[in-house]
């Protein structure tokens, strides 16, 4: 999140729109480790031609296995191998990795600086000149990167921009969806995210939430999941609820009905 905010700040300073890039099917672009053999059973429905079975000296398909030659989604090492491929590609293009933020890369050519933030297969790019940013996407053709234009949605956040106020990321859609899932789509708004009465709730002042239950029952796990979502929102776009979320997060071990 700090990487994304840095890119938006620089884009605002340089007046060059932050562009969103996406690498489709990123994980399968990386090669697996040469020293590691990975073998798979035949997928259901796959039929091996008779002449191939004879050439391999097997009678039935169940005697065959497939050797994986490329990286694949679902492998434990898939994310690491993709990150290594992207890192090597960027270094080859003259970029350097930030020493303080491993998700940020930068390159200076002819006095023109280009900076990008990386989140798995999503890239956020800006620079001192628009031409340099556009040229970057042309250099990454080997990874089949898609230029999605000026960032309007990134990591589940909606991004708006105007010349007077700069960039304004929000999670309105995610918040509305969370309210809908918890039956609060029609709830009334409040002026403050937390009231003074929250300080009066004792550690054992109310009945504990159940550990299991059917639809509509707020369980301990449901409470923990909700607090986790709120932590994400507080960190990303809603610092105004940070204290209230902090108070709620202290109760995740044994939440009560009052929580």
Automatic annotation (TrEMBL):
Name listed for the protein in its UniProt record: Reverse transcriptase Ty1/copia-type domain-containing protein
Family matches, as SUPFAM superfamilies: DNA/RNA polymerases
Recorded superkingdom: Eukaryota
InterPro entries in alphabetical order: DNA/RNA_pol_sf, RVT_2
Ranges where the Reverse transcriptase Ty1/copia-type domain occurs: 2-194
Pfam families in UniProt: RVT_2 (PF07727)
